[in-house]
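Example record used in the benchmark description.
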Amino acid sequence: MNVLRPRAVLESLRPYPAERTPVDLDLADNVNLWGMPPAAVRALTDPDAPRPSAYPPADPMELRVALADYAGVRPEQVVTGCGSDDVIDGALRAFAAPGDRVACCSPTFSMLSHFARVNDLVPVQVPFLPDGGLNVGGLLAAGAEITYVCAPNNPTGAVVSAGALAELLSSARGLVLVDEAYGEFSGASAVPWLQGTRNLLVTRTLSKAFGMAGLRVGYGLAAPEVVRALELVRGPYRVNTLALRAAVAALREDLGWVRRHVLLAVESRERLVPALRRLGLAPLPSAANFVCIPVPDPARVGAALLERGIRVRVLPGVAGGAIRVGVGPWEAMERLLEALGEALR
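Model output (structure tokens):
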């Protein structure tokens, strides 16, 4: 009798932890706690909106043009996906063969190593420098076909210096993938390096600053030949009909709303850090819309916060044990601070 068995590597992998028990205040996913741009809401509720009984465009040119205008590139430099992780997964399949290496500094976006292993690649994790900076020497020494950089880094919030990125782009042997899921909150971007650079892919998302996490719209920016390779591996219809309509509306009509709420998130972050210090904590420097906070016994602290209706991301292996909290309206941050003070006592 034949026995169906999945590939051996899957036996050592675990599903992405996505706890969805309802809570009053969810700070675990770093989404936009102010909601979605009003133009996107109108696009979804418009009675004349396209019906999802038909396929969306195989090549969503209207979205590509809107994203190109927003990012300051040409439409042929844009590829779209079902979230930026879809683009990252496609890049690993397009630019590395089974057995090749994918290098990153660790800790970073947890799905990067998962995607590497599922695609029969070898993840090589290099520690960050003691000051939290990118370990360019270690990344280059890995000799990887793909080098991944999260900027700002998730889960620590650390920035990537322009000098480190320049050295990496000039010396890396293969594709340099810069994940800018939280880029709007940092005020810096690798996109200007696309001018004259062929080995760079910048991935972004509308899940964070644009408040559209549930619609799963991501994109990549790269040289046209990189985009063409990604289009070959991703398949058609990666952005659904309603998400496409909402994304174009937000990009065309409501960038002012997006930018105002990015500033509000940064203001909350900058108020939250000194308040955490007054609780005796030492939050890591962050350029994102979240703060990573080393705490004693993070599992206990996370559970205590959950009892008070607040979910955070528990990170036992980061900075000796930490929690990560998304930032949002100050009223929500005040509630977090009160609950965190109680949990620590």
